[in-house]
Amino acid sequence: MKPVPAIAIAVLLLLGSFVRAQEAEWSRLISLGDEAMAKRQYPQAEAAYREALKVAEQHWKRDARLAGALIKLAEACNAESKKVDAEAFANRSVATLGEALKAHKPKNASDELEQVEVSASLFDKAGDIFAANQKYLDAETMYRRVIAVREKYASEKFPAKPNNEDFFRSMMQTLGDAAPKVADANDKLADLYRSERKIEEAMFLYQQSEVLREKRYGPDKPQTAKSLNDLATCYSLQGNYDQAEPLYKRVIDIFDHAEYKDTPQMATTLENYALLLKRTDRLTEAKDILQKAGAIRTNLATAPQ
Length: 305
Description:
This protein has 13 helices and no strands. The protein is an all-alpha fold and 305 residues long. It has 2 domains: 31-176, Tetratricopeptide repeat domain (Serine Threonine Protein Phosphatase 5, Tetratricopeptide repeat, Alpha Horseshoe); 200-300, Alpha Horseshoe (Serine Threonine Protein Phosphatase 5, Tetratricopeptide repeat). α8 (178-195) runs antiparallel to α9 and α10 runs antiparallel to α11. It is globular and about 65 Å long. The termini are far apart.
């Protein structure tokens, strides 16, 4: 084998340094934008994200960094009430991510998980933008894509002859709570349906979430109680109080025995249950429950930070 000429080595080193410099600049601009967003300095955030997008467009093609800059820019524009720009950038981000995923197939289980998390997060953020702007059909499309990504990853099984990567993937699915993340994605779409008063559609998803959480955590855990509370609220909205009440009582019992008795979650559940009691003309019981919820809210507000 012929030795590599010194000039070729020098060129490679220079190219490597150049690439690292561009990556560092992109990261710096994204960080500047994130800091401005945290301070609600939205015009400054938009400016930083636009510069990050320029860097990405100049140096990378079909790359997730393009999609990342675009979705952050969409969020900044939406925070400034630039709805048209925000939605356009969100759509560009989703399309750009699709191209990036086609160009970069995962090499191993770690890469696969990273792509799942990046994709789910980006679709979710795009959905939030559309939902905030009352573009419910577009939001539903994005949230359904989150569910599809999560379900596909959570449902992957061992092949007949698993190798080390298969075992690693299975471990990451468990430790990374792949199934509960499907439940979270279901809830996001269900919440959207509930806000549109599509109660049947919302209930179907909440029921799926409850099954997933009960299987993962057990029937008497706070995570499962969240789904039960959502279901109870849907039954109550439908006027099916006989079905809602035992669920609220079950949630309250779970929180009471899981050191959640003085939490915002307990207060919210008590308030929801009190509303049910009012609607069924049990005003004295409702008053007592509301007093308990109010005491929790007061203690939380006056507790030292």
